[in-house]
Amino acid sequence: MTHRYRIADDVAWVSQEDLDGGDAPTAYLARVPKGMPILLEGSGCVVWLALAEGGTLEEVTAAAAAMSGTGAEDISADVADLVDQLVVIGVVREE
Known about the structure:
By secondary structure, the protein is α+β, with helices and mostly antiparallel strands. The protein is 45% helix and 25% strand. It has a three-stranded antiparallel β-sheet. A three-stranded antiparallel β-sheet has the order 2-3-4.
């Protein structure tokens, strides 16, 4: 069975592009109403933005690779690790 991932319904987030368009991609997120704020910078933010579209781990990895200009095979292990961590803390849902 192939799992699909998506941002949890109780998560509010904004990316730096929406705020000030700085150099490094940055996302600020929190579970609402009482979650601790989380900051994802650089490649972590790229994976988060890929997760915003939802999809399988392979689809998320491909989207992150396309956004960052790297090969999916080069980042697949790191993407899988980050997605697992985001599932554990409850900001990403596995379906």
